[in-house]
Design goal:
Order of helices and strands: HHHHHHEEHHHHHHHHH
Number of domains: 1
Mean pLDDT: 85
Structural class: mainly alpha
Radius of gyration: 19 Å
Strand order of the largest sheet: 1-2
Number of strands: 2
Distance between the termini: 57 Å
Largest sheet: 2 strands, antiparallel
Strand content: under 5%
Helix content: 55-70%
Shape: globular
Number of helices: 15
Low-confidence stretches: 28-34, 44-55
């Protein structure tokens, strides 16, 4: 069978119109809604034991990517809320990858804590100083050294296996890109899509994947190479049940079903077929875009990006 390349589509005219209207409404409501939403999201993505006593990065250190990068643009957009859902849904389809998560993480007992740490890693590698990004990758590599075992079907797994690292990388950043193309305020064009994949390859190399994709076509080829390994087992179903109905703070819970359905548009078609779910309708995609753009208008620029921009400005002055 000839492989049909997967290129994440951009929004339709109807989705753009609804999204623009919702974004305008979100800006009007921002003074009222911002504190409520930020409070709810903070409980999900901020470590309750963390303090603000963190030494600032050296002025001028804009990290691995910088203000002209596509990575800063993509990761600052509210479409990342959908991207995270899609990434977990796709990653869970690899039995060895989900076995490592099920056996060696506290995802079952503290799923929000697990998501919080993942979000912190994504933010640090995108916006942190070069030394902070490298340190975050070093911590993950050290954790991966201990993540070994056997999947329910008896096959051995090791988290630092370059092949598994590649699966996690291409599913994560592939869905991040797809979410931006579908729901971003300024969806990437084809050139930016290639630039994004080339930029984030650095993260994969730092984690131990020696040959990550450097273009969208290569990323799609990597997904196709991994595809024969995918399946829906009991551990994958557990992950799906969590994604469909997670223990969320009240301010976020109301929007979750819309974001969850919208996230299915950020998976390659073969993945939704494997999960046995339909692709979102135009109305569902439009509702998701409207929700995402409202969130973006209310929440504003991520604090990590503000800090990174300040460091970059210090270098230019």
């Amino acid at each position: 069978m000839v492989h049909e390349p997967w290129i994440p589509p951009r929004p339709t005219a109807a989705e753009l119109v609804l999204g623009a209207g919702a974004g305008a409404g979100g800006r009007l409501l921002a003074p009222i809604a911002r504190q409520v939403l930020r409070s709810g999201l903070r409980s999900m993505f901020r470590d309750p034991d963390a303090t603000d006593d963190v030494a600032p990065a050296a002025p001028g250190d804009a990290g691995w990517f910088g203000p002209d990068s596509v990575t800063w643009q993509v990761h600052a957009d509210a479409s990342m809320f959908v991207a995270g859902i899609a990434a977990l849904a796709l990653q869970s389809l690899h039995p060895l990858a989900i076995a490592g998560v099920a056996d060696h993480s506290d995802f079952g007992s503290d799923p929000i804590g697990r998501l919080r740490r993942t979000a912190a890693f994504v933010g640090t590698t995108a916006y942190g100083s070069a030394s902070d990004a490298a340190a975050a990758c070093a911590v993950v590599r050290a954790v991966h050294d201990r993540v070994v075992g056997r999947a329910p079907d008896g096959r051995p797994y090791a988290a630092n296996d370059p092949d598994l690292l590649d699966w996690v990388h291409v599913t994560e950043f592939g869905t991040f890109a797809a979410a931006n193309r579908r729901y971003g305020a300024n969806p990437m064009d084809a050139d930016q899509l290639d630039r994004y994949v080339a930029e984030v390859a650095r993260i994969a190399v730092e984690l131990g994947d020696p040959t990550p994709p450097r273009s969208w076509a290569q990323l799609d080829d990597h997904l196709e190479r991994h595809r024969p390994m995918t399946a829906v087992g009991s551990q994958a179903r557990d992950a799906w049940r969590f994604l469909a109905d997670p223990p969320l703070p009240a301010p976020v819970r109301a929007a979750w079903p819309v974001l969850f359905r919208g996230a299915m548009a950020c998976l390659p078609p073969w993945a939704t077929e494997l999960w046995g779910v339909s692709r979102p309708t135009t109305a569902e995609r439009a509702a998701c875009r409207a929700t995402v753009r409202s969130l973006g208008a209310v929440l504003g620029t991520p604090p990590g990006l503000v800090d990174a921009k300040n460091r970059a400005l210090a270098a230019a002055s």
